[in-house]
Each structure stands twice: as structure tokens, then as C-alpha cells.
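> example.struct
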């Protein structure tokens, strides 16, 4: 079990310490793994740590070789696991509810927006269909879904999904966009169309934020996450590769007729 402390947390006892246990890399067992829910809650809590309403401690656990104390405390439960003042919360929906209702400042992240909620809820399942094998119909369906998100961002003209500050929906969407970008390209040569300027601008803003970059797994870990799901063997050299992070933007997001 390796610890990684979010730097924004303060340890002066004035604010509660929240610990988030996340899955470690399936390549080296130490760095951050490519679990979407782990990253989503990491981002939620990181934003609260930046606001100094909590102190955040993030712990990675290698689920291929979980340490004895983890097995003793949590048996076969997989991360994410949130620990608040000795209370362990184990299920995703319960973690979300706890952040919203019980973690100081958390309620501010959870805005109500039915249009955004319905727009992003099936995105990941479309990615999973695309990754199974190259299929133009499934790729077209995913592109159409991304185009709808682009249209919403264009219409609203805001920096993030619901306004100019981040909310829970951004913490949900952006990790999925990163998986689409990295795994889609690797497995089936899928690319987010460069015509989706508003979506790329959104991703550009997200790439500037510590909440995303500090929680984002390496490209290799995202790829290996899906290799394991497809029972593909990892090549030995992958363990020695220097982690890379795809954060480049292939379009000009500063064109004058688009708002920053």
C-alpha cells in the first residue's frame, strides 16, 4: 500500500482529514491505476482540499497483491473506498452520497442538471462497445454522442458543463473522455473529431487543472486496464516504460470567434 498525499490538504487539525483508497497501477502496483470511479472521487475531493474544507490523503492499493491489513479491514472489497473519521464507505453510490451530504463543502459540487446528467450517463458504455473490435457503426455512435456534448458546451458558452466552476459532472465526464482518447486510439484508432471545437476547448481547460492532472492515470495504465479486460497479455517491457500522459490539443481553441 503506498501513500500519496494531495498537497492541498492542511494538517493543522482545523479541517477533517478524508482518506481515499484507490486502485494502484496494474503495471507497477504503485502509481495511480485507471479506475474511473477512483479518479472521479479523487477529483471531487481534490477540489474540496483546494478550498481547504478538508485535508485529503490518497492511498493506492495493488489489488493483485493487497497488503494483509487491507484484506483484514476490507476483505475482497475493491477501491474506491472513502474513510472519514474512522468510518469506511465502500460502495460507489454511498461514497457519492457521503461526499455530497457529509464532507464539508461537498454539497456545492453536486448541482442539479438533468440535461447534463442524461447526456453523459451512457458515454462509457459506448466506449466499451467500440473497444471490443473495430466497428464503424459503433464508432459513429460514439462520435455522435461526443458531438451532442460539444453542442451543449457550444450552446451554453461556459468553461465547464454547468457553469464556470467545476462540479460533479465534470469530475465524471473528463476521466471518461481521457479513456476514450487514449484507449480508443490505441485499440481501434478512434479519435475525437477535431471539428468538435467546444469539446476540445473544454478538455483544454481541464488539462490545466491540478484536480485532473494529479488524479489522471498514465496512458499505459489506461491501456493496460482494457488489455486485462480483454485478457490480452502485457509485454514485459511495458513495466519499464516511462509513464506518458496525453494532454495535447490538436485544434486551436483560442480562435477569436470562440469565447475562452
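> example.seq
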Amino acid at each position: 500500500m503506498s501513500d500519496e498525499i494531495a498537497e492541498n490538504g492542511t494538517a493543522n487539525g482545523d479541517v477533517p482529514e478524508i482518506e481515499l483508497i484507490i486502485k494502484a497501477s496494474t503495471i507497477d502496483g504503485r502509481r495511480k491505476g485507471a479506475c474511473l470511479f477512483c479518479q472521479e472521487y479523487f477529483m471531487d475531493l481534490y477540489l474540496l482540499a483546494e478550498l481547504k474544507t478538508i485535508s485529503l490523503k490518497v492511498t493506492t492499493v495493488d489489488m493483485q497483491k493487497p497488503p494483509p491489513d487491507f484484506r483484514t479491514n476490507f476483505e475482497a472489497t475493491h477501491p474506491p473506498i472513502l474513510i472519514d473519521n474512522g468510518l469506511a464507505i465502500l460502495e460507489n453510490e454511498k461514497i457519492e452520497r457521503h461526499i455530497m451530504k457529509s464532507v464539508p463543502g461537498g454539497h456545492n459540487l453536486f448541482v442539479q442538471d438533468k440535461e447534463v446528467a442524461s447526456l453523459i450517463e451512457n458515454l462509457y458504455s459506448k466506449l466499451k462497445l467500440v473497444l471490443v473490435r473495430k466497428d464503424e457503426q459503433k464508432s459513429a455512435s460514439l462520435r455522435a454522442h461526443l458531438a451532442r456534448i460539444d453542442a451543449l458546451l457550444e450552446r451554453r458558452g461556459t468553461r465547464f458543463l454547468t457553469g464556470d466552476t467545476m462540479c460533479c459532472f465534470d469530475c465524471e465526464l473528463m476521466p471518461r473522455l481521457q479513456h476514450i482518447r487514449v484507449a480508443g486510439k490505441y485499440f481501434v484508432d478512434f479519435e475525437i473529431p477535431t471539428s468538435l471545437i467546444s469539446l476540445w476547448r473544454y478538455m483544454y481547460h481541464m488539462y490545466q487543472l491540478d484536480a485532473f492532472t494529479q488524479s489522471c492515470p498514465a496512458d499505459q495504465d489506461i491501456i493496460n486496464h482494457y488489455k486485462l479486460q480483454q485478457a490480452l497479455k502485457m509485454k514485459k517491457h511495458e513495466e519499464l516504460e516511462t509513464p506518458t500522459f496525453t494532454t495535447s490539443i490538436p485544434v486551436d481553441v483560442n480562435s477569436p470567434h470562440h469565447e475562452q
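> remarks
The first strand starts at residue 2 and ends at 5.
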